[in-house]
Specification:
Blueprint: E1 3-6, E2 13-16, E3 24-26, H1 29-35, E4 40-46, E5 50-54, E6 59-63, E7 68-73, E8 79-84, E9 90-94, E10 108-110
Parallel strand pairs: 3-10
Antiparallel strand pairs: 1-2, 2-5, 3-4, 4-9, 6-7, 7-8, 8-9
Protein name: S-(Hydroxymethyl)glutathione synthase
Keywords: Lyase, Metal-binding, Zinc
Domain CENP-V/GFA: 3-119
């Protein structure tokens, strides 16, 4: 199975060669700022299974910390992936950019210790104050 995704303006398109294993809700302040929402919904994807189909040249990168580079469309601003130096074989895919329906569902919340004070988590998924080991 392959999954397809794109940015809002359709300038960037990508394909993933496999189903996703894990989806995580991240509530850290940097994810909130980068996505303009209460949390980011991300999934790790092996770089070797990720392929840029169109518009890789439109991708802009921002070094948001010493270990994280955030990549987004330079035209419409859609966040696409982040790259973490401590997991060099993986991209962290922004789930909202997928166009293909999937079966995988989120499995946990991380960084809930710094979640937005106005947010209420309304599910029974495991919650971690930081990133679990």
């Amino acid at each position: 199975m392959s999954l397809k995704g794109s940015c809002l303006c359709q300038g960037i398109r990508y394909e993933i060669e496999t189903e996703l294993d894990e989806i995580i809700y991240c509530h850290c302040q940097k994810c909130r700022k980068a996505n303009g929402t209460a949390f980011a919904t991300n999934a790790p994807v092996l770089i070797q299974q990720f392929k840029w189909i169109q518009g890789e040249n439109l991708l802009k990168k921002y070094q948001s910390s010493s270990t994280t580079e955030r990549c987004f469309c330079g035209v419409c601003g859609s966040p696409i992936i982040s790259i973490k130096s401590d997991t060099p074989d993986f991209y962290r895919l922004r789930m909202g950019t997928l166009d293909t329906p999937i079966q995988t569902r989120p499995g946990k919340h991380i960084f809930v210790g710094s979640k937005a004070e106005w947010e209420t988590i309304c599910d029974e998924l495991p919650q971690f104050n930081e990133r679990p080991e």
